[in-house]
Design goal:
- Helix 1 links the parallel strand 1 and strand 2.
- The strands form 6 sheets. A 7-stranded parallel sheet has the order 3-4-2-1-7-8-9, sandwiched between helices. A 7-stranded mixed sheet has the order 15-11-10-16-17-19-18.
- Helix 7 runs parallel beside helix 9 and helix 8 packs across helix 10.
- With 837 residues, it is an alpha/beta fold.
- It starts with 7 loop residues before the first strand and ends in a 5-residue tail after the last strand.
- It contains 24 helices and 29 strands.
Amino acid sequence: MAHELFPIVGVGSSAGGIEAMRGFFAGLPQPFGASIVVITHLSRDRESLLPEVLARFTTLPVEVASDAVAVQPDRVYVMPPGVIFGIHQGRLTLTPLEPGVREPKPIDVFLTALALDQGERAVAVILSGGDSDGAIGIKAIKEHGGLTFAQAPDENGPETPDMPISALRTGFVDHSVVADEIGRLIVTHGSGHKSIEPILSDDPNGIAVADDVLAEIHAILRRQVGHDFSGYKPTTFRRRLARRIVVGNDEGPVEYLARLRTDAAEAAALFRDLLIGVTKFFRDTDAFDALAEQVIPKLFEGRPAEETVRVWVPACSTGEEVYSIAILLAEHMVTLPAPPRVQIFATDIDERSLTVARIGRYPRAYLDAVSPDRIARHFVIEGESVVIGKAVRDLCTFAPHSVLRDPPFSRLDLVSCRNLLIYLGLDAQERTLPMLHYALRPGGYLFIGMAENVTRFEDLFATVDRWHRIFQSTNAIRPVRLPSVSGDTWVDLAPDARTKPQGALMHANLRHLVDAEVLAKFAPPHAVVTRAGEAVHYSARIDTVLGVVPGQPTHELAALVAKGLRLELRTALREAIETNAVVERTGLEINLSSGLRQPLSLTVSPMAPRPGTEPLFLVVFTETAPASDREASATQVEIGRDETIRRLERELSLTRERLQAIIEEYETSLEEVKSSNEELYSVNEEMQSGNEELEASKEEVQSINEELHTVNNELSSKIQALDRLTLEQAALFASTEIASVFLDTELRIRTLTDAAAQIFGAQVSDRGRLLSNFAAPFSLSWLPEDARAVMTHGGMTDRLLDGSDSNRYRVRLTPSRIDGEMSGIIANFVRVADDTA
């Protein structure tokens, strides 16, 4: 089809952004090779001259858009007023608005439709304009792989910068440049896209990138943004990398890598492009229907009101999947007399996506799979945008979290991880699926995407609905290595890391494998924690001293270890932090699951500081003796009573010291809490005062509004009275047939009656001209002197004149005053009968 052969450029601007449009069209190369659609904020009550104006800026044909017209390259289409503007299958669509209705976001509406229709061939340009119109459309264009621009300031604008600034704040703008540079970049991007299209179509790996270049790009991303993309599926990564190469006008991966080494902003842009995914509500409707029928009711079965149904949606993007599940849960809750609480944890590594999700505002085009009944119940409609209702929003908690880096949530009833695994490589999938099983309760449910499966982990998940990808957690136990935030090696995070020779890499890998094997089999369980006590790394066999605690999930190591170690670990860690020295605790014991008691010693050691990182501490749990049963321990106590007493006395002394330290910490914390409470009370008072001021201001504004309304009504009444008086005055003058002329102080015509117009041959359009400029049937040479006398001394003058038309005229001049000030004279000309007749 024709619309598949060239880009379509949506240009959004306000009707007053003429200079911005002049600059945009002035910078278009010839030939341009794309079609341009201009969307503006137009009043339906006024005829728009924008097509005629734009025709002066460009040699391209400019026309007002018509319904169902197929867009053509090198043409400009202008949105008409009073319609909802869209595009479908390369043809423009115009839906008339109802009388009195105005679409507040026409640019968002069209750009969203353009993104859905054209995908990667859509281009969005945001020029000068007010409001935030265009921000949602920019997001839609970028999600579907299109190109985005926002006007940057220069001497020619933007006159109103609100729209470009709002677009830039979304983080989805590819280029922020001056208006006359946009066209050149569009053409450059189009030629670059065509140059890599054969590679993207023929090579399943996308664009050819050497392994060493790809590894360094992964390392730069880890260093710059803190996330490791080496586990992402290579085809997806390389396709997104190809897009950034084209957008940056780089010749290839090597040149792009050179720019990436020095440009932190480009690393952030690549990071955002890698995270962009197409999302909408109830994507794969049949799958969500199966979830509602087969899973949602079972989550609430036998659950009292005091319990909580826990759901986790990792990689939630901008929240459409989260709110879809929340709607299903909310709809089932209303059918129960006393439903349990629902808590949905929605996580992602992209803070910008989480911000969009928290706001919960989406284009109505994203709701094509949502029924009108659901829209009415769960959404607030604002023009062509919708906002999530408060009842659904309150079920969801959004937070940053990496599935590959951070420890998972636990005791979950449902995990919805749709269309994440397809972006991960096999190694990352091997780590992710066991971790999701670990996070679920026994019998919890896993909901994944239509292109994903758990075939390699059938021992962990039983199939509930294979067609719709719904699985249930089994009781199988597989060792799960919790992720580490520290990465694979410190070398990856070092700015000056150099590439090693291949032989050195092989030796390093072998040494790494040997070290890992020795640590897994012979090293004591250990962990690395921060100053706050939060674990950032776990070793093998750490599960011997860890236990899942009830309540809110936590990363604090002291809250996860066995009960017999918690107090010792907290005090030892605090002492190590205060003294920056190694602290050791001996004579500790824990109960093993087999019923035996395992003697342990605890060592907390500060790790060597590293530039730019917070202090870390190594916690080691060392087995001091083989595990023994309780009876054997009792026998040893009887044999070594004196030794036991000494040990107990030592422990008692240590306990007293710890208790005193805890009391001091408690008192300090109590003072801090009191201080915080006072500050909160003060802030509350200030907020209350501010609220009262806002209420007062609101009342004042309402009062002013009422006064303005009253004044407006009075003004309308006076205007109507004035119009009526004018009409009556004109009727009066017409009925008298008196020739009267109203002159200003310079003897220029202000107004005149029809009879006077016949005498002087004047017309209504002659107002403002001198009366002496007209051919009268008598001389007016006397007029200036008599007029000056009347305006100076007041009174009036009478004069008889003989006219060239055989008539005699009586001329009377009287002064005209307005508000007590002289404004001119009134001259009355009356034909008089001849006495001799």
